[in-house]
Write a structure and sequence with these properties.
The structure holds two protein chains of two kinds.
Chain A: E1 3-8, E2 14-20, E3 24-28, E4 35-36, E5 47-52, E6 55-60, E7 67-71, E8 79-80, E9 86-89, E10 93-97, E11 100-106, H1 119-125, H2 130-150, H3 158-187, H4 192-220, H5 223-249, H6 254-277, E12 304-305, H7 306-311, H8 313-325
Parallel strand pairs in A: 3-4
Antiparallel strand pairs in A: 1-2, 1-11, 3-5, 5-6, 6-9, 7-8, 7-10, 10-11
Helix pairs in contact in A: 2-4, 3-4, 3-5, 4-5, 5-6
Chain B: H1 5-23, H2 42-49, E1 53-60, E2 66-74, E3 80-83, H3 85-93, E4 98-104, E5 109-118, E6 123-128, H4 134-139, E7 156-161, E8 169-178, E9 187-190, E10 201-203, E11 209-218, E12 221-226, H5 227-240, H6 247-268, E13 273-276, E14 279-282, E15 289-295, E16 305-313, E17 317-320, E18 323-325, E19 328-336, H7 342-353, E20 371-379, E21 388-398, E22 406-414, E23 420-431, H8 433-446, E24 448-449
Antiparallel strand pairs in B: 1-2, 1-4, 2-3, 3-6, 4-5, 5-6, 7-8, 7-10, 8-9, 9-12, 10-11, 11-12, 13-14, 14-24, 15-16, 16-19, 17-18, 19-23, 20-21, 21-22, 22-23
The chains are: A alpha+beta, B alpha+beta.
């Protein structure tokens, strides 16, 4: 029966494997071995594995640094010293020699069932095209410039907005690069443009929703609307964006993805609430009134009479009395 | 560049600057006189009256050293001394931490009890502590007579006091009559009052008190409390026959009564109007208000038209070092989009709209936080005319020590025109609920885009 020796990398992920048909395998740095490893801390003849009933017998061939058994299904984990040079390894045992980690399995070792390719993964991968990224990029540029233009009441000068636009795009680019580097590392593939497209899309949806929330809040006549909906919009989109990026760049299961994304969003909520808590109950000599204004075309809620407004002063006075008791 | 960006911040700060200027309070001490003779010189006035003018010291009980100084003068032979409320205020509000002492030019000293205040006119009466010693009382028994008639404008008068703790000093100046620009009468004295002279007397050439030193606006423009206010306070005190027990209650009553009187007078007036753009706004409510205004129309690179008018009553009631009341402010803006598109115009408008603040100072120990209500309000003009839709804001904060009094802020801006806007705003400091409501009703009826 063949022995499979797996060479493990960061996070226990298999980098490559050796298949040896003999019932006895030698491992070392020397070329006479069945499995030749390039690690300066491994002795030329380091160890030998012999197939025995239901497992393998490991014999340390008087190696300089010994063998550490990091995981064994057969007997308690132990380190082989010079005197105690023999151990019994079960199926799936992991050992460490020098700085190299190995896993030993037989060819009949079971593997996980195949996972269904998630539709999000498939759909997001389709974004990895220049022909999709470019229009999105241009639209987001136009939206940003338009937002800057319509909020500017000084004479328009391009030189004043260049730095703003450049820094926005630099931040987006940085995040796209971060995710694609993570993908390269964890999945050995990077979908730079997909990440970039997702980030641009999220930004566009956020801007549109925030604008709508602003109009809604203005017509409702209270800053509570924007205070609740604005962060909700931002956090919801962030969770979606994170989850999609995790799907592209990592091997997480959908459940893990959502837990990670929502966990991160929760962390942001906790941190921001904690940061704001310092300001709660602090006295301000300035009134905090809702100063939002919208253009007449977007003003569609009704108005009350001046008499009704003045009559409502009593509620404000009552609230002011309550506030003075603190 | 286009619109003047400084303008946005300039408006509130200009108000604050003015407020601070007017509020520069001075402290002074004086010396009493016997009060006979005619046309005395500054030298004789000084010599004759110094026995009746005292330095008032606020002593921190824990450290035993003086925290503040001012001046005062003897007004009757039972040891009643007049000074400014702002000189003794800190001791009045924290009697467990501070005590009031006097110190005369002849070296006599003793402790004083606060017996009454007139917070509206910044006056206080303190009494020589009878338990101290009768000898001390006799040492300061040089009573300064109060003038029965107001002097003519232009006559020389002499302010006495203890500027910057330099010792008793006499400052010659000119009597310029009761200032007509303020609701609370103040004598305009042309002469330099300095820190430490507050509460000291200003004497005419006959050695009679014509006013009490109170504040300065700098450059020889100084203010005195008219002696009539002191005469009234002394009369009230003598009628009561004893000191006021609850000073906080007394001050609250004075503030309430004063604002009732003031707003009754203001609301009864027929408010004059003046045009600002297409709107008509409240003009100077003579004699209480000073108005000024400006626009960016002369600026070549302005992107929009911004014209404003600000009016302010010059009445500040000193309540403590960080808390004053009594001020009324009106502010109006007329905006036209000009070169801006509607979205840009409203971006500017929103920035301006968010920048309004009250005209008086207050701290957490004095007032609660502002509570606000925001509504869309239809301004009903005459039946025939179309209504204007506005966004209106009303905020109020309550005084902690003086019940039924509030600072209020009212702000209203039109929201139904794409190319122009009209903002009207007022703040009232130290007002009752009913007066605030009546004022808002009248204000909304007068300040309108017609």
């Amino acid at each position: 029966m063949a022995i499979i020796i797996e060479l493990l990398g960061w996070g226990g992920k298999r980098q490559r494997y050796f298949r040896v048909e003999n019932s006895s395998v030698t491992i070392g740095r020397g070329y006479q071995n069945d499995v030749v490893l390039d690690d300066a801390h491994i002795s030329p003849n380091h160890l030998r594995l012999d197939a025995v009933n239901g497992g393998w017998q490991l014999t340390d061939l008087a190696s300089l640094n010994g063998v550490e058994i990091t995981k064994n299904t057969a007997s308690p984990v132990s380190e082989l010293g010079a005197s105690d040079s023999i151990a019994f390894l079960g199926e799936g045992a992991e050992i460490k020699l020098g700085r190299t980690r190995l896993r030993i399995v037989s060819e009949s070792h079971p593997v996980d069932a195949a996972k269904e390719l998630h539709h999000l993964e498939q759909d997001a991968s389709k974004l990895n095209r220049f022909s999709i990224w470019l229009p999105l990029f241009l639209i987001s540029l136009v939206v940003e410039i338009a937002a800057l233009y319509f909020n500017s009441f000084v004479e328009w000068q391009w030189k004043n907005v260049f730095s703003t636009i450049l820094s926005t795009q630099a931040v987006l680019l940085f995040f796209a690069l971060f995710w694609s580097a993570l993908g390269r590392f964890l999945r050995s593939e990077s979908q730079f443009l997909s990440h970039y497209c997702l980030i641009l899309l999220a930004g566009l949806v956020y801007s549109l929703a925030d604008w709508l929330i602003g109009i809604l809040g203005y017509n409702a006549g209270t800053q509570t609307v924007a205070m609740i909906l604005s962060p909700l919009n931002a956090l919801l989109l962030l969770a979606l964006l994170l989850s999609a990026n995790f799907a592209l760049a990592t091997n997480m299961l959908p459940r893990q993805r959502w837990i990670s994304s929502l966990g991160f969003v929760m962390l942001i909520i906790v941190v921001s609430i904690t940061a704001q808590m310092r300001g709660w109950g602090e006295f301000s000599p300035y009134p905090d009134y809702f100063s939002g204004l919208g253009v007449p075309a977007l003003q569609f809620s009704g108005a009350e009479s001046a008499d009704d407004f003045i009559a409502s002063f009593d509620d404000v006075f009552a609230a002011a009395d309550g506030s003075a008791l603190d | 560049m286009s619109i003047d960006k400084n303008r946005l911040q300039g408006q509130p700060f200009r108000l604050v600057a003015l407020l601070i200027t007017v509020l520069l309070i001075v402290f002074l001490i004086g010396s009493p006189t016997s009060g006979f003779a005619q046309s005395k010189s500054a030298r004789t006035l000084f010599a004759d009256n110094k026995a009746g003018i005292l330095q008032i010291r606020i002593i921190d009980i824990t450290s035993g050293s003086k925290s503040a100084i001012g001046s005062g003068f003897v007004v009757n032979d039972s040891g009643l001394i007049a000074t400014n409320y702002h000189v003794v205020q800190i001791a009045a509000s924290k009697p467990e931490q501070y005590r009031i002492e006097y110190f005369s030019a002849s070296g006599a000293a003793g402790s004083l009890n606060l017996v009454d205040v007139d917070v509206i006119n910044d006056l206080a009466l303190v009494q020589v502590n009878s338990q101290t010693n009768s000898q001390a009382s006799s040492q300061i028994a040089a009573v300064l007579p109060l003038a029965a008639a107001e002097p003519a404008i232009g006559v020389p008068v002499y302010a006495l006091g203890n500027p910057l703790d330099l010792g008793l000093t006499v400052v010659p100046g000119t009597y310029n009559g009761i200032n007509q620009n303020s609701y609370h009468p103040r004598v305009h004295f042309t002469g330099s009052l300095n820190s430490g002279m507050s509460g000291g007397p200003t004497l005419n050439q006959d050695g009679e008190v014509v006013g009490i030193n109170v504040s300065t606006a700098g450059n020889q423009v100084s203010f005195l409390v008219p002696v009539t206010a002191l005469q009234q306070l002394i009369a009230e005190h003598q009628l009561r026959g004893q000191g006021v027990d609850n000073m906080e209650l007394r001050i609250g009553q004075q503030l309430l009564a004063d604002q009732d009187k003031k707003f009754a007078k203001l609301l009864a007036l027929d408010w004059p109007t003046i045009a600002l753009g297409e709107a008509s706004v409240v003009n100077e409510l003579s004699p209480f208000f000073r108005c000024w205004g400006g626009s960016n129309s002369s600026s070549d690179n302005a992107q929009l038209l911004n014209a404003d008018r600000t009016c302010r009553s010059e009445d500040n009631i000193y309540l403590n070092g960080k808390f004053n009341s009594g001020v009324i402010e009106h502010q109006f803006f007329w905006l036209e989009a000009d070169k801006l598109n509607t979205l840009q115009f409203y971006a500017y408008y929103q920035r301006l709209f968010s920048d309004f603040a009250p005209g008086n100072m207050a701290r957490k120990k004095d007032v609660g936080g502002y509570q606000c209500d925001t509504e869309f309000v239809a301004v009903n003009n005459l039946e025939a005319e179309p209504q204007r839709k506005t966004k209106a804001v009303f905020c109020a904060r309550a005084y902690k020590d003086y019940p039924q009094l509030y600072d209020v802020l009212f702000l209203q801006g039109t929201v139904d025109d794409s190319r122009a806007a009209f903002i009207s705003h007022f703040t009232l400091a130290g007002v009752s609920r009913d007066n605030a409501k009546a004022y808002a009703r009248k204000f909304m009826g007068v300040a309108q885009w017609r």
